[in-house]
Amino acid sequence: MGTVNMPTPVAVAIAALVLLAGYLLGVVAGPDGPERTTGTVDSFDASSNLLCLSGDSVAALEESDLDVADEQGDDDVLCGRWERSAGSERPETGDEFRFVVVRTTQAPEDEATDDPEESSGRVLIYGAVVD
């Protein structure tokens, strides 16, 4: 039995098809990535890191089962403490902002009270201005 010599362009094309098929299988059958939510900066207070966002994505979050009611109690605006990495661009009113929201179950120790209703946690917003 002899060996089959395949021309190089054919071998490269077959390898490319195999890689493409693997990628497509991974995208279709693989785990879902985190949903990236984008909102519009409504306001930002640099002294307290209080960030308020608005937009359709914010309204959809507040209607979901995630229980991310904001600290200000406004239905159309989500406000919370912006947790940012060093060197992050400061948001300004009107900027597009990609974010993830986390609602803590307990208030920080410096804000804790004996009343369980008052120390119900806080909203943390992780994200950055979209370039």
Could you characterize what this model shows?
Helix content is 23%, strand content 27%. The protein contains 2 helices and 5 strands. A 5-stranded mixed barrel has the order 1-2-3-5-4.
Key terms:
alpha+beta; single chain; 5 strands; 131 residues; five-stranded mixed β-barrel; 27% strand
- The helix content is 10-25%
How many DSSP helices?
Answer: 2
Order of helices and strands: HEEHEEE
- β-strand number: 5
Round the mean pLDDT to the nearest integer and report it.
77
Structural class: alpha+beta
- Biggest pleated sheet: 5 strands, mixed, barrel
What strand line-up does the widest sheet have? 1-2-3-5-4
Rg of Cα set: 23 Å
Quaternary class: single chain
Beta-sheet strand percentage? 25-35%
Distance between the termini: 61 Å
Brief digest:
Helix content is 23%, strand content 27%.
Strand and helix map with partners:
Blueprint (H helix, E strand, L loop, with lengths): L7 H22 L7 E9 L4 E5 L1 H8 L13 E7 L12 E8 L19 E7 L2
Parallel strand pairs: 3-5
Antiparallel strand pairs: 1-2, 1-4, 2-3, 4-5
